[in-house]
Amino acid sequence: MESMEYTRFFFSLAVVLSLIWACAWLAKRFGLDKKLRGVTAASGRLGVVDTVYLDPKRKLVLVRADAREYVILLAGESVTVIDKLDGKPNA
Predict the structure, then answer these.
(1) Other C-beta atoms lying within 10 Å of the C-beta of residue 71
(2) What string of DSSP letters covers the chain?
(3) 87 backbone dihedrals φ, ψ, rounded to 5°
(4) Does residue 40 register a pLDDT over 60?
(5) Can you give the pLDDT at residue 23?
(6) pLDDT at 60
(7) What pLDDT score does 75 carry?
């Protein structure tokens, strides 16, 4: 009887974990995760324009906030604003 209880326990655990995974997949598939975090679409005020990885610990990120753009260096636990740009650059 004891092995039957263990089998039922592991089967129940597998079903619960599968349901959690399915809910997370559906939320990500339909964009619910971004809505819950407050991330908006292209009309939002804040967005990451581009990212350049310098090495495994450092990267440059171009962030647009309203009409301004910021070049930010992320290195481990430190954040440094490299440059502030007004408006969109002419390409």
Answers:
(1) 17
(2) -HHHHHHHHHHHHHHHHHHHHHHHHHHHHTTHHHHHHT---TTSSEEEEEEEEEETTEEEEEEEETTEEEEEEEETTEEEEEEEEESPPP-
(3) 70, -175
(4) no
(5) 92
(6) 93
(7) 92
The model's pLDDT over 18-34, given as tens digits with 9 standing for 90+, comes to 999 999 988 888 777 66
Top-confidence residue, 88 or 13: 13
- Token digits of residue 61: 């990120």
Cα–chain center distance at 7: 37
- Determine contact, residues 69/85, Cβ cutoff 8 Å: yes
* Dist CA 60 CA 10 (whole Å): 46
CA-based R_g, the chain, Å: 22
